[in-house]
Amino acid sequence: MTTHIENDDIQTTRGEKVLAVVLTVFLLIGGIWAYTKLEIHHAYAAPSYTPAEQRAISTYEAAQQRSFTARNAVDSAQNRLELSREAYRTALEAHQPSARLAARYHADTARFSAAQAAERAADAAVRQAAPAARAAQDHESAAAAARSNHDARNTFLLRLGLLLALIALSFFVFMRLRTSRYLPVAAALLAAVTILAFVMAVDYVTDYVGWRDVGPLVLSLVGVTLSLLAFWGLQRYLVRRIPRRRVRRNECPFCGYPVRGAGAHCEGCGRDIVAECAKCAAPRRVGTAHCAACGSS
């Protein structure tokens, strides 16, 4: 059961502050776990080509295989040609019979020329089949990139929804517990959600914005904006809280000057510090939560 306190001056002990820090850490661990688990990433799917695209890719791969085979044939024919040429030259220099070696040399020369022609034809077939195969692969790559972007967008929306829900919950809890002894619990939740929001901001700013270009500027602007909004909210909260604290300390609710005696005006700023109660018209200190005569708020 939550214990509420009528005044706003809640004194938090050191032990409560330590427990709030510990609670913040564990809440942040759970929040980051949920943040990472919300990533949508489909399992790898084999490329899906149309029949025409599959034929283009198959033609290109077959042409590449023929080109590879033709290149090996050229290397083999060149090696045989070099051996037969050396043998033929050696026989000529030694004035030995060379008719058989000459026939072998000319046959290897013809075989090498034929292998070169086959290689040129295979390379031409590769160049002819390459555009269609490349277009098919680019189409599949674009489809895969679209699927990846779709998953990334859904992941971002889920994480943003989680963060907005946690922000709404944290502010709701803070408003419910701001006059309770459990205020440190609300502060711990607010701190954990704030850190999680910063983690998400850094995560996506570095993904979609060039960090070395404008990344620090974006973070600076976002941080300044959030800080000013928090400062504005804090000032609105203090406007309601400070006068009551000053009244309890027997000070002027407007300027904080000490109130001495039963005077109706502040000696520091001259404003009225005693006014009539709106319900019973009895004298009432300005800034008090309730009337001392009738108890109305």
Radius of gyration: 42 Å
Oligomerization status of the protein chains: single chain
Provide the spatial order of strands within the biggest beta sheet: 1-2
| Count of runs of 4 or more consecutive helical residues | 5
- The average pLDDT is 80
Structural class: mainly alpha
Percent of residues in helical segments?
55-70%
Largest sheet: 2 strands, antiparallel
Bulk shape: rod-shaped
Share of β-strand residues = under 5%
Low-confidence stretches: 1-9
* Cα distance spanning the termini: 25 Å
User: Count the strands?
Assistant: 2
Sketch the topology as an H/E string, one letter per element.
HHHHHEE
What does this structure look like?
The chain is mostly helical. It has a domain of 197 residues. Helices cover 69% and strands 2% of the residues. The protein has five helices and two strands. Strands 1-2 form a two-stranded antiparallel ribbon. Strand 1 and strand 2 form a beta hairpin. The longest helix has 79 residues. The radius of gyration is 42 Å and the shape is rod-shaped. The N terminus is likely disordered.
